[in-house]
What does this fold into?
Amino acid sequence: QVQLVESGGGLVQAGGSLRLSCAASGRTLSRYNMGWFRQAPGKEREFVAAISWSLGNTYYLDSVKGRFTISRDNAKNTVFLQMNSLKPEDTAVYYCAADRSSGWSAPRSINEYDYWGQGTQVTVSS
It folds into this structure.
């Protein structure tokens, strides 16, 4: 079992930056693909970014490409999401998730992930 805890959310003005962290306990994350999702009020949860367990392959939602960067520190059992040039439409609860499959297919579906954190609120004011 893997427990995931997100942190780093908050209130920021448009154009600002935040760095989200996702710390894992229970098992090492080094063999899990990891992803970030977000859910805005009244909307479905959507994929934001993913990183493979090996080689550090990444995949992003088109609207965050060039602004967000997903990374991981396996030694610290932590995954990060650096968010720059934030926009009001980025406002949402952000969740990290772990995919225990051994391959890499840029997992973008909620159903491809096995473990989820509780989420951290990101609010971008205009």
About this structure: Residues 99 and 111 are 9 Å apart (CA to CA).
